[in-house]
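hi! just following up on the protien thing from before. the input was this:
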Amino acid sequence: MSFKRRSNSKAKLINKVDPILGQGWTVENRGRTSSANLPFDDKHPLIIPKSHVATLLVRHYHEQVAHQGRHFTEGAVRSAGLWLIGEKRLVSNVIHKCIFCRKLRGKLEEQKMSDLPQDRLSPEPPFTHVGLDIFGPWTVIARRTRGGHAENKRWAIMFTCLSTRAVHIEVIESMTTASFINALRRFAAIRGPVKTLRSDRGTNFIGACKELSFNTDDSDLKTYLQNNKCTWTFNPPHSSHRGGVWERMIGVARRILDALLLKKKTSLLTHEGLITLMAEVTAVMNSRPLVPISSDPEEPTVLTPSMLLTHKVESLSAPVGDFDANDLSSKHWRKVQGLADAFWRRWRLEYLATLQPRRKRHAVKRDLQEGDVVLLKDAQAKRTDWSTGLVVKTIPSQDGRVRKVEVKVVRQGTPKVYLRPISEIVFLFHNPST
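and the predicted 3d structure came back as:
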């Protein structure tokens, strides 16, 4: 029964083109343009059914038009006096599988948006889990001299709490690993011990590390982290989107700092002035709303990181009058605890709800596999100069989806293996022989 249906469908397709028997026992399309002043091949193109021969012909004419799109390829086939059955679908299928076209116009790989890490969902004390990045530099006046002043550079380290989204900024004065450790010590002394440090391994952080002349694998730094029971986790290279929760804060800090510098109408600051500005930037950022502003009169207060850090809903001046130490409430700590409980309650009900939906990448895609031949993106080179590599190892996430892989690339005769996110990779084809 199914065979008859297939035969009938094929017969209908051939009947639509009005076939006639041409020279050499070929089947041609008679059509309705016999009276046109056109070459014979244009008026009566050769009918070719869907077959391997038709696929080879499409590949040939696709190469003739320099791997252009379906419209160009169909035009070349028709100009050659050929009428392919199911031509549009066949041409689209050939172009979709064309390796050369994937190199030229293939899309970068993507996968369904992953679940948030536990660091961002745990109601632990502020700055228990931290993302950090370095930004700057700024030129400051180191000392004034008889002929003017001596200038020096300063950088800033931003620590972002992954759960409360609060920030803390420390200024780095010297370009040594010891200076970075001192900044970590000052941060821990003010904000308390840290369990997890997260940072990028991209140009922003590693470039700053090289400029600051300190090594993240330094023995002194590892000893300090080990003594404080703190782990430092790096994101894969070229995957700054994984640190978006703190990368975005860098942009916010820069905009606030530019506004403050414009207000002061000066381009050069002293070291003390820069530290003061950074404190003001921190205060502004920690007072930002975490959720959309509610118009409910029963919820007049805005949920901000500052509520938990200062245990104050808003900044108020000191009350006027004389007070006796005996009049102070012995239950003040209960009020402080109540504010903290209120923050975490609203944090669970309001803030976590905003993290629930996936903003993009909703569909599950094919996972890259070992043996896939891929194109490795290089932002410093043209697409035609991107390296071709082989996936030698896949690293699944907690949900089993592959979002980062190790790619083997041969450059200047030397094989190298790079760890890359799939957003930096274009899939070409699978090589089952590997």
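DSSP finds 13 helices and 15 strands in the chain.
The two ends are 43 Å apart (CA to CA).
cheers
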